[in-house]
Amino acid sequence: MISISDLAGALGARLQGDGSILVSGAAEPESATADQIALGMQPAFAEALGRSAARSAIVWDGADWRGLGLEAAIVAPRGRQVMAGVTRVFDRPPELPPGVHPSAVVDPEADIGVDARIGAFVVIGARARVGRGARIMPHVAVAEDAAIGEDALVHSGARIGARVVIGDRFIAQAGAVIGSDGFSFVASAPGSIEEAREQGVVTTRESATQLRINSIGTVVIGDDVEVGANSCVDRGTISQTRIGNGTKIDNLVQIGHNVQVGENCLICGQAGIAGSTVVGDGVVIGGAASVADHLRIGSHVVITGKSGVSGHVADNRIMMGYPAVEMDRNVEMYKALRRLPRVLARLAVGRSLGSDGNPNDPKAGPRAEDERR
């Protein structure tokens, strides 16, 4: 239990009313009980707050919380920011006993930091390092020479590859793979891919053997990075794939070999970034968007969901569509596309009526005669 006064202090928000009320958690207004704080950060929640059993709520600036029957309120000028604090206060971290589980296999040369917790059936390879206070959940594999920073949380089934270097406060959701080999092959003889790149045509009639280019580089991840469930970050071919500080990667994301992602980026579910592309700081890549290889994406770019980026993008652009163009242009193109059937219909009528639109024009021909019928 926490008092409303202490909760407001933890959130850095303004308290109004009785701060001594104790709450055990947070809930939406419709389901909140008397010992929960209701989350009603927008005026749209007013009616539900009026019906709620909650004694306290987080409300929008200027809300008549007394009129809604509440005894206390925490004012949230930015609702989602306060939501981040609320979920932090009432978070239920995954349970993991202290120490190393008896079933874990930890190489004698591995370095396990103070207060680190290692779950059941974890495998940690030779010379791997796990930082102070890190939590490695069951069935995680950490390969040789990998390094995981302090206070990391690696959820069940994640895989950390050899020589991967990860900063502090890292979170990997279940099934994430950091340091998988890149998808890199070369044909044993010049073939369709090289012809397509150089000439724009394919003339070859024989399939060449694909020779594997091994990934002998690694992955370097900064501090405060999160990688979602079943996402993959491929290691570099020769050098490193890099993910900058504070970047958050959603579920089912593919980061290709040699990609460089800047700081504080958001990469949403099912997005893919192909090899050797450089992404600046503060970039947002929407769900299912794709970014081609060897591109430069500037800082503070927004790429909307399902867009396909095939060229370089300057700073501070909003890109949309397939192929992606700046948002204003994409909207105009979409409007033109919607008008296209009407335009084509008018052109067809004009052709059928003749050069001057006169159905009696002898140049109109059979199609004009059809129109008169």
Provide structural commentary.
This protein has six helices and 40 strands. The protein has 373 residues and is of the alpha/beta class. The protein has three domains: 2-89, MurE/MurF, N-terminal domain (Udp-n-acetylmuramoylalanyl-d-glutamate--2,6- Diaminopimelate Ligase, Chain: A, domain 1, 3-Layer(aba) Sandwich); 99-279, 3 Solenoid (UDP N-Acetylglucosamine Acyltransferase, domain 1); 337-372, no CATH class. A twelve-stranded mixed beta sheet has the order 8-11-14-17-20-25-28-31-34-37-39-40. Strand 39 (318-320) and strand 40 (325-326) form a beta hairpin. Helix 5 crosses helix 6. The model is unreliable at 364-373 (pLDDT under 50).
List keywords for this structure.
373 residues; alpha/beta; Udp-n-acetylmuramoylalanyl-d-glutamate--2,6- Diaminopimelate Ligase, Chain: A, domain 1; UDP N-Acetylglucosamine Acyltransferase, domain 1; ten-stranded parallel sheet
Total number of helical segments? 6
Largest sheet: 12 strands, mixed
Shape descriptor reads flat
How far apart the termini lie comes to 83 Å
Count all strands and give the number. Answer: 40
- Which structural class fits the helix and strand makeup? alpha/beta
Given as residue ranges, the uncertain stretches (5+ residues, pLDDT < 50) are 364-373
CATH architecture type of the largest domain: 3 Solenoid
The total domain count is 3
Enumerate the strands of the largest sheet in spatial order, edge to edge or round the barrel: 8-11-14-17-20-25-28-31-34-37-39-40
What's the CATH C level of the largest domain? Mainly Beta
Strand content: 25-35%
Write down the CATH topology of the largest domain.
UDP N-Acetylglucosamine Acyltransferase, domain 1
